[in-house]
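Handout, section B. The chain below has 779 residues.
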Amino acid sequence: MKIRLFCTLVDVTRITHISSIPLGGVTQSEGSIMMHRLLISSCFLIAICMQISAQQLRWEALPDFSAGVCRDMVETPDGALLLAGPVSLIGQDGRGLFRLEKGETSLQDVSPTWSRITALEVPGDGSLLCASEEALWRSENDGRNWRKTQDSLRGSFRDLRKLYDGNCYAITSRGAFFRSTDDGMSWDTVSTSLQPRENWGLLDFIGMTPRGWYIVATTSFNPRFSSDGGVTWLRYYLHEDSIHATPRLLYHSYLSPHDGALISAWQSSIERQPPDWHSYDIVEILPAADFRDDVAPTDLISNGDSTLYCGIGTTNYFFFGHTGAPDIPQDSVGILRSWDDGRSWSWLQRGLDVQSLLLTSDGELIVSTLFEGFRRVDTADGSSSAMRFAYGHVSDILCTDDALLVTVDSSHAQGVLRSKDAGSTWNWSDSLKQWFHDRAPQLSMQSDGTLLRGGPDGMLSSSDGGRNWFWVRNSLASMARFTDGSWLAAEYIWPWQNRTECTLYYFDAFLQLEDRFPAEGMGRIYDLHVGSTGLVIAAADSGLFTSLDRGRSWQQHRTEVVTRLFPQRDGSLLAGTRGGFLASGNGGASWTEIPVYSEFMVHTVLRYDETIICSCSRSYDERGIPPPGDRTGIIRSVQGGEWFGVMEGLPTPEITCLAMDAQGVLYAGTRGCGMFRSTEAVTNLRHEELALPHALEVSVYPQPLVSQGSLRLRLPARSTVSITMRDLLGRIVLPTRSCSLTAGTTTLPLNVSGLVRGIYLLEVRWKGTLRLLSVSVLP
């Protein structure tokens, strides 16, 4: 049932009357300001109610979908968890910051930035600190909101810690060293003289000895220390005038609060150095076996006293094979514990492929694993239980007739997750390899049912519904299969390559190369598709192209970039582009353009009957996907008419992909928050009434605005409207304009490029009434 909100129309005379009510001694101007703020608050409520009325589509998390390794996590003062984004292969490591409430199955996106999160710290005053690559941040409300406190001067921030003296310290990769004496509210520069030479590597760790010496580690195992407050930095000192004493900082290190011993875990052992560093003891924690190079310490933490925990897991330094039948014995991974400050160790838990650890205030260990998601481990007996919440960077979704297939970019191992029960349970495919690459994995289905998965380890194919995958070729962006079994493939252009023209390859049915030819004037080719008539369609930087001779010559249909092609179940073909999408009902021979929003890039287009679902963003990167922080939105329409946002239940605007199954159920992949499913099928949604409204309806898209946006007006009859933008003090910030509009829907451009960041009030006057909307503007 559509909800009518009569309070959205405010009579101007009533506003004047209300503003004259005594306000407890405040002045006339103060009362005016308060009224504007009250109206803004009302607008927020009205906007929420209108959204609920319009969309009728909600999302729920799939809590058993967890596909990512979290490197940084802390417990907030109110008992929630704060998690950095998952590890990635395409340069997106640790991007995003997410909060998990107790008992919830969905994360909350609380990211202060979408650059990489490198460290989290709890200073002890009830606040939280966060280091991203470009800045330091502080939150005073358990991580829900963040304030920038320090920009990086040189390099990117690599570590942030509270040390022996009670102060907080941060260090950048290129030698800027900061200190805060007020729990991260402000920062002073301790030193900029720590400039690592080429053979040092990047600065990567900061500590302090009991005697007050600063100590830093580098990625090339060349630690330095300073005994004079950061003025000079040394590699070693002469112990008893004869021994070169130097700290040994290796991957995972810890400084004992008792005797200042330096404890480091690396490869198959844990080393313990006394405070003067003149010697060290080695404790072998892993046996000398063939799998030693694939298993190593992955984390080292303490309870603040004498108990230490060391995580053992699969490393990301070497290739490894199938996860269905791992080559690494399960009793080689798990958690080691030391009761005596690192002198001796024993197994607390065996079997979990541990990647990072967190000790909570109630004495439990939170473990991020490679393939089993997050686990809680009881430190009394080592028993573990699954934590059910969605997590992971989803790169693509494909719905087949009998399964849901998902590729992820959130682990140093790649594969396909498969679900037979609409996302309730998941299984990994048996082909997983580590391969550093810049291409996010994507899925496609050929006309004969063959599945293709492009990604870091090359192009793979599956003929059994995604259960088993076989390597086809390397360095291919996309492939399409003809009815005779032959293939057309587009070369993948690496981001570091100084060119934009790709090469096309023609293979026979046995994948033997028969021909190759340049794709002149097309730029990067993101997707290929062969229609039912044999026509080849290509989505490329330079637009949409078709070929009748298997890719040797091309006809250009559109000049705007097209990044993906979406075959529909009814045989039609859709393709997103800037400002809208293209539709073809004849195998790609001709195309119709459907406008959406002129300033936005449409990435995913789905259709079920008359309902159209799109995901859109402001831009795209060299892989043809929305970049981090671009705030992708999901919208839907009936027959391409009015568009409504359908984001209710999604905790983040970082949407990466969409898919729809045969029953009309929608699935959404996110950057960090895992997988979501619509609570209703599209077929069960009542279509919006397309009749003229009874009164003026106003909406602004997107929210928040960056430079440009759209103001949408729906009128019951031809009328004149007046539009004014004000700030919170009631001052006009954009010139008032009057427009004579016809009945129905009109979309007007809204240019806010000259406004500073903040909340503004949009006034639309129509027939003696005033319609008010709050508008959020970002720089």
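Note. The chain has two helices and 66 strands. Compare this with the example in section A.
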